[in-house]
Amino acid sequence: LLSKLANLTELTLKGPGVTDEGLESLPALTKLKRLDLTTAGISDAALEPIGQIENLEVLTLRKTTISADGLSKLTGLSKLRALDLRNVDVTNEALPFIGKLTNLADLQLERAKISAEGIAELLPLKKLRSINLNTIGVDNETLKVLGQLPALEAIQLDSALITDQGMKYLKPLS
Fold first, then answer.
1. Integer Cα distance of 18 and 129 in angstroms
2. Alpha carbon separation from 40 to 1, 12, 26, 32, 33 (Å, rounded)
3. Beta-carbon neighbour count of residue 174 at 10 Å?
4. What is the pLDDT of residues 48-96, one digit of tens each?
5. Model-level pTM?
């Protein structure tokens, strides 16, 4: 059914009743720019067809159970500019794959289980303007990495473990 909606530019499929079944037809939606699968009951397998949506610019996977294996299937999304992974069990293992999405301007990683070493894998994201690292235990070492992202304009750091000393690492962004 989805493949027959050829002019679709935005698609929202939310909730646990949304599964992998039927998503294999998504690459046929050549005009699709935004896909929101918040709280969907999808697995890593669903990201295979999603990774083939050539014109996808915004992908929301909030509160899903995907892993690094699934995210590895998205590296070909050359037009992706926003990726929302809030409340997803993203680990350092996933960050090299996210780092290959070089057109990303907005990245939401709230509640991810990542470290400064993992965040260093995001340094290829030279167009990244906004990042959400709420509640991941960001420390001064993380700020050192973030200060190397030249386009960064907005950083969300609720529950961060940073000090005034660490703020100096963000000086290159001013």
1. 31
2. 18, 10, 15, 18, 19
3. 5
4. 999 999 999 999 999 999 999 999 999 999 999 999 999 999 999 999 9
5. 0.96
